[in-house]
Amino acid sequence: MDILGTILWPFRWIIEAILVSFHWVFTAFGLDTNDGWTWVLSIVGLVLVVRAALIPLFVKQIKSQRKMLEVAPDLQKIQAKYKGKRDQFSREAMTRETMALYGKHGTSPFSSCLPLLFQMPVFFGLFTTLSNAAKEIPGIGLMDKALSESFGQAVIFGSAPLHSSMSTANGNWLVIWIAGIMVVTMTVTQFFLQKQIMSKNISQAVKESPTYRQQQILLYVLPLVFLFSGFAFPLGVTLYWLVSNFWTMGQQFVVIRNMPTPGSPAFAEWEARQAARNARKGIVAPEVMEADEAPKKPQREQPRGKNRAKRGKGKK
Question: Where is the composition biased (Basic residues) (predicted)?
Answer without folding.
Answer: 305-316
